[in-house]
Amino acid sequence: MRVDNEMKLEFLSKSQNESFARSVVAAFAAQLDPTIEEISEIKTAVSEAVTNAIIHGYEYEQGYVTIVCRIIDNTIEVEVTDKGKGIEDIEKARQPLYTSRPELERSGMGFTVMETFMDHVSVISELGKGTTVIMKKSFKRD
Q1: What is the CATH number of domain 5-138?
Q2: Residues 74, 94, 106, 115: which is the catalytic one?
Q3: What is the pLDDT confidence band of residue 140, given thresholds at 50, 70 and 90?
Q4: Catalytic, out of 52, 70, 77, 79
Q5: What gap in Å lies between CA 42 and CA 44, rounded to an integer?
Q6: Is 94 known to be catalytic?
Q7: Which of 10, 28, 36, 57 is within CB 3.0–4.6 Å of 82 for a Cys-Cys bond?
């Protein structure tokens, strides 16, 4: 796999950093000349992944969220990683409307939103060690 470009961003798991993260990823993706709609889709998917890391990964603790973006040909790959509590049942967590924190009145649609806006979403998680969400989106070239 030949990586054309790559960047890494790490920040504290504070909700106010979510908009910063989505803007950085959007700026990085801009080199693929996406449409405004495609940029919006990437930003939304990144928001969901980062929010999951902050709300579910670290729950009542604070830690770091790491984002690694790679451009490979006409595809952006975005990895969002936390070193939080991990996901007990990934398949259950990916079901629409499922939430492990119902007291927060969240919709439970995070993974569904990511899957809607990105071409590929995979989740790697280990209890007590954290979670990585890998999202890919390809762009047409003229």
Answers
A1: 3.30.565.10
A2: 106
A3: confident
A4: 52
A5: 5
A6: no
A7: 57
